[in-house]
Each structure stands twice: as structure tokens, then as C-alpha cells.
Amino acid sequence: MSKKEKSLKTKSQIDSPKKFNKFGDLLNVGATVAWLLIVFITFIDVVMRYLLSSSIPGGYEIIKTLMAIGIFLSLPIAALRHAHVKVELLVQNLSKQWQSRSTKLGGAVGALFFGLITWRVYMLTVHSYESGEVTTYLRLPLWWVMVIMVILGVVTTVCCAVATASGFGKENSINGK
Q1: Domain ranges of the chain
Q2: What's the pTM value of the predicted model, to 2 decimals?
Q3: With pLDDT > 90 as the criterion, what percentage of the chain qualifies?
Q4: Interior CA angle at 14 toward 9 and 17, to 5°?
């Protein structure tokens, strides 16, 4: 690859291995599908309610499930891009060295936080499975959604740790710096 071709690539394409870009793309597609399904189901439900005086059976339960999946699909993407919340007014006034340290600290805290959340969701999943909890209307077992949440929680925790250790995605702060 020539110097000119390399200079045309974005910093994230150079810094991030292709497997992380492809993994992020896959998560992006999944999250987008979940959010679009929520919009579509909500729209159809509202139209049915006004035109036919009835709603989609179990529509609320489907939307809740898709929201959980959509959120947990989005978390690893945010972790890989260092898109966590930070006070830009404070961070932008720090030296480059302290900005880097704050990013690494944020990633480490994120890994710890998501590890804790994942552990608690896992405990809730075990309880839900053992007690046979199901949704009210559709009678779907709750544990299967929680298993997806646990898997994606582990992925998010690992992504926080990997992104922090490697520095991938540093350029994706709120103001693009």
C-alpha cells in the first residue's frame, strides 16, 4: 500500500484490526434491525388501535424484548469507539497525556461496571430459568432474552478492556478530537 493510499484511510481504520471493524458492523446491523422493528411495531400498533380498535397481541412485550436486545447490541459498539459519556468541557482542557489517562480510566471503569451488570443479569437469568418466569401475554420464557443480554454483557466487558488496553477508537470523542 502506498503512502498516499494509507493517508486516505481514517485513523480508526489504521488503528483497529479489521476483525473489530467487521464485528462492530455486525453489531451495528443487529442493533439497527432491533430499533427499526421497534419503530415498525409501534407504528403498526398505533394505526391498528385507531383504525381497528385493537392492538398487536403482545406488542408491548415484543417491544420490551427488542429494546433490551437493541441496548445490549449497542453497548459493545460504544465501548469499542470509546463513546462513553465524559465531560468534554473538562477533558478538552487537559493535556494529551491526561486525556489519554482519562480515556483509559473511563474504559477500565466501564469494564468493571459492565462486568458487574453482566454478573447481576446472569444471576437474574438463573433465577428466571429456575422459576419458569414467562411474559404475561405471549407466555414467552424470560430467561432466553436474559441469556442474550449476558452474552452481550460479556462482549461489552471484553470490548471495554480491549479498547482501553489497545487505545482503539481514541478519535471518537464527542467533538471528534
Answers
A1: 17-166
A2: 0.75
A3: 49
A4: 130
